[in-house]
UniProtKB/TrEMBL annotation:
InterPro entries attached to this UniProt entry: Aldolase_TIM (IPR013785), GH (IPR017853), Glyco_hydro_27 (IPR002241)
Protein name per Swiss-Prot or TrEMBL: Alpha-galactosidase
Assembly and oligomerization: Homodimer.
CDD domains: GH27 (cd14792)
GO molecular function terms attached to this record: alpha-galactosidase activity
Top-level taxon in the UniProt lineage: Eukaryota
Pfam families named in the record: Melibiase_2
Gene Ontology CC terms, in alphabetical order: cytoplasm
EC number(s) per entry: 3.2.1.-
Biological process annotations from GO: glycoside catabolic process; oligosaccharide metabolic process
SUPFAM superfamilies documented for this protein: (Trans)glycosidases
Length: 195
């Protein structure tokens, strides 16, 4: 980052013009050209893990595919999409606690009975994009499966589902030297052309 101060009016002693110049590097693939703007469920809904204790009639109405479909509808209806908000993002607590027999992440069957692909199709039909949370370590913040050791298969799974954005945490990484594993995630994602 380069920071330059310049007097706005040389005859006045007040008012400075600040020019900020940032140096960045990124893949030249046309992705992430602007800041990510959209809606993320975490601040309001978090996990709401105990579906039997929900105030509403079912967990489906609390934190589920229905919530994200409803939010996509609202984003279009009230003008968020027209204002540049394009992402509907799922945070932690969406997966099952176990991977399938091929090692792929699975959705929680109560929260996402039709899977992420159907949700992504719905969000895309609204002209929006779907984002999802994962962790580069052994588990997510809430204890669901992390991507450590599964970067290639997880990148392919997310791409197959139609996910457009990945929000990765580094919570449960066994050693700091393994932070370089993040590069493996990027390499795994490069072949997908999705995120």
């Amino acid at each position: 980052m380069f920071l330059a101060f310049q007097q706005h009016n040389p005859k006045a002693h007040t008012g400075l013009e600040i020019n900020l110049h940032f140096s960045t590097s990124a893949l030249d693939n046309g992705l992430a050209l602007t800041p990510t703007m959209g809606w993320l469920h975490w601040e309001r809904f978090m996990c709401n893990i105990d579906c039997d204790e929900c105030i509403r009639s079912s967990c489906i109405e609390i934190f589920s595919s229905c919530l994200f479909m409803e939010m996509a509808d609202v984003m279009v209806k009230v003008g968020w999409k027209d204002a540049g908000c394009e992402f509907v993002c799922i945070d932690d607590c969406w997966p099952s606690h176990k991977r399938d027999t091929q090692g792929r992440l699975q959705t929680d069957p109560k929260r996402f009975p039709s899977g992420i692909k159907k949700l992504a199709d719905y969000v895309h039909a609204k002209g929006l994009k779907l984002g999802i949370y994962a962790d580069i370590g052994t588990s997510t913040c809430a204890g669901y499966p992390g991507s450590l050791g599964y970067y290639d298969i997880d990148a392919k799974t997310f791409a197959d589902w139609g996910v457009d954005l990945l929000k990765f945490y580094r919570r449960f990484m066994p050693d700091w030297h393994q932070l370089g594993e993040g590069r493996s995630i990027c390499k795994s994602q490069q072949y997908t052309d999705r995120f």
